[in-house]
Amino acid sequence: MSKLFRTKNPASYLALVLILGLWLARQIQPPPVALASGRGVAGHVFDGQGEPVIDADLKLYINKEDRPVAKTRSQPDGAYLLVLPEAQTASYVRVEVERPHFKLHVWTPDGAEFAALLEEDTFVTHDIIMERRIVASFWITAAIFIGMLAIIATERLHNTVAALLAMVLIFGVSLLGEIFSPDLFIFTFDQAIEYVDFEVIFLLLGMMIVIGVIEETGIFQWLAFQAYRLSRGKVWLLSMILMSITAIASALLDNVTTMLLITPIILEIALAAGINPLSLVLPALLSANVGGLATLVGTPVNIMIGSFVGLDFNDFVVHLTPGVLMALLGLMVFVQLRYWKEYHTVGGGLSPALMKQLEENGRIRDPLKLRKGGIVFGVLLLLFVLGEPLHLPPTISAIAGAVAMLLWVNPDIREMMSVVDWTTLVFFIGLFVVVGAVQEVGILAVIADGIVGMVGTSLMASLLSIVWIAALLSGMIDNIPFAAAMLPIVKLLTRIIPGAESNVLYYGLAIGADLGGNSSLIGSSANLVVAGITERAGYRITFRKFLKVGIPAMAITTAIGSLWLIIHFI
Asked: Are 119 and 37 in contact (CB under 8 A)?
């Protein structure tokens, strides 16, 4: 067999085959049927929130016959056209609209409409509004989704296993339960695939490869050592420099990767300086979650929002980076006050032997790879910035950067495959399917109605509600599944609330979900990664210990972020 397919981790290829297979399954779906022209009835089908209802079955009956004379399905924009048979005389017309999770809707024309129907080639009806049905599938899907969140929050199972388990349960209920009752149907496999956002999957895949190659050069360890040299042994200054480096790295890479690389060297520096490592590690972690908010690729939440709405790299930089800088400054002030005693009771300076050891651990291991990788990464950032005028999606730029790394920087395909976090990619696929089920049965529509009933049409109230609900709940639930569930709700609110067309509510969701991840140990994937590293080093971060630092940090940064959005947008 070719060397290309020899790997110590066959699961990597299985994951790649799964992702590509799902993507191909989505691509080969039959295209929407073109609306025919001719005499008939046309219009649009919407739900109670004004969203188009896709794939609703429409049947046209005339003269009170039992069999329909025309059938069609609603298109992605909710449009439909039912064509009347040629030379067909009609004294009575009825249109039935049916779709799972909605009540049967029947439209019959009044006298004026019926006369217009007979005279016009195509009669356009008023918009058809379908009402939701709350049946068994609604409650079962809600229970599965809440169960998945509970498992993730309590860490009973790995996040990926929890998402896949929930996905399997949803398919099992939908496909097997339908045999016993139509009220147990959720959606088909083909419909489920439509909810998987492959732009997010392939953007993450490309960035993982690009970052994985660069991290092998030792650049992050070198930066951490240079931070210590620049601080000249002043721990308070060192903490601020480390926070700044971490925030910038998280904005350009992602917070999980950044903390994986920088936490070990911070531990070494802290132990050599005789200071509690957590007084440097925790501030760096908090700044990683803040800094990642500044760009499209800084956090998985931003990637999901950008793909869902169509926001590009520049949108996040322009509308969020100033607020991130303000929040980071507020976080630094809090950290200095919180750790004042630890920072000012430690003598500065290390012995020459310790300095030499730190310098050795923080050296660049592969300068040639760093130069090549730096060039590729620089071009990639340029493509992110210029993507909108060039009509180049961030996903294509990230995949192009990964291919460039493969062809020029590191041609070993086995190493390239090993740097990809396949468990995270599979987690996203399962998560998208589960959230798609939640959206399909109408749970998100019910939540959206509740929020609208609470805040009315006030943009300010809606913004603050989204920011703080997201911030508080992201501390109890991993912010990735929470943000995925909130996106359709924010979409509904954006359409009906005056002034929300600026996408301010999406930016509010980003601020709440990203900064809210700082409030508890389970609020962000980066938090759990750092806790694992420090525990292996003998410094355990307990849930309670993290809350004492995380909750005030979250409150301060979220308040500053909210203030920035109000100033900038409202």
From this structure: no
Q: Is the separation of the CB atoms in 188 and 433 below 8 Å?
A: no
SS3 category, 127: coil
Identify any residues that bridge with 96 across adjacent strands, giving them in sequence order: 59, 106
List, for residues 53-102, the tens digit of each pLDDT value: 999 999 988 877 788 888 999 998 899 988 877 655 667 788 899 999 99
Q: Strands, E, within 200-320: which ranges?
A: none
Rounded CA-CA distance 524/471 in Å is 11
341 pLDDT more than 60: yes
Strand 57-62 to 93-98 pairing:
antiparallel
| Cβ contact 123:116 at 8 Å | yes
Give the C-alpha separation, 338 to 334, whole Å.
Answer: 6
Domains of the chain: 40-129 (2.60.40.10)
134's tokens: 């709350």
The answer, as to whether pTM is greater than 0.90, is no
Length of the chain: 570
Residue 24, C-beta contacts closer than 8 angstroms, at least 6 positions apart: none
What helix, strand, coil percent values describe the chain, rounded to 5?
Answer: 65, 5, 25
Region for residue 185 given its phi and psi (left: phi exceeds 0; alpha: psi -120 to 50; beta: otherwise): beta
Whole-number Å distance between alpha carbons of 26 and 38: 31
pLDDT in tens, 312-330: 888 999 999 999 999 999 9
Helix (H, G, I), strand (E, B) or coil at 247: helix
Distances (CA, A) of 536 to 17, 247, 467: 34, 24, 35
Write the pLDDT tens digit of every residue in 407-448: 887 667 777 777 777 877 888 788 889 888 988 898 877 877
Q: Are the CB atoms for 42 and 80 separated by under 8 Å?
A: yes
Lowest mean pLDDT among 53-62, 182-191, 217-226: 217-226
Question: Which burial class, exposed, middle or buried, applies to 333 when counting CB atoms under 10 A from its CB (0-12, 13-18, 19+)?
Answer: exposed
Q: Rounded distance, CA 211 to CA 420, Å?
A: 9
Yes or no: say if 289 and 526 are a contact pair by the CB < 8 Å rule. yes
- State the pLDDT confidence band at 349, using cuts at 50, 70 and 90: low
pLDDT at 2: 36
The per-residue pLDDT of the chain, averaged, comes to 82
